[in-house]
Amino acid sequence: MPQPLGPVEYLIIDFPGNQFSGEIIPALHELLDTGLIRILDLAVISKDSEGNVLLFEAGELMDEVGHELAELEGEHDDLLSEEDLLMAAEDLPNNSTAAAMLFENVW
Question: Within 13 A of 106's CA, how many CA atoms are on the CB side?
């Protein structure tokens, strides 16, 4: 029997200067470990200095940060559509990266 979902939230966190180093990962682990949230989907939006947008699912990133982000995702993925992420990218300043996350409040 599928587990019912609690309140679901959509969050975008901007990291100026395209310097996404994973500094948010320990805070996300703390929220997960204490049972406050469950991450349903996680993606990374990157915008270069000319406004070109790249979209990545957490598991598509090949570095250590991507590996750590992929471990945070729950059993749901692809809930954030390309359209959702491109819409979020419209408000993202050039030369920046953002993490887009869909999460369930399980408290």
Answer: 16
Q: DSSP characters for 56-107?
A: EEGGG--SHHHHHHHHH--S--S-S-HHHHHHHHHTSPSSEEEEEEEEEE--
Q: What string of pLDDT tens digits covers the 107 residues of the chain?
A: 566 777 889 999 888 777 677 778 888 889 989 989 989 888 889 899 999 998 987 666 656 666 677 677 666 667 889 999 999 999 999 999 888 999 999 87
DSSP bridge pairs for 16: 96
DSSP 6-21: --EEEEEEEEETT---
pTM: 0.80
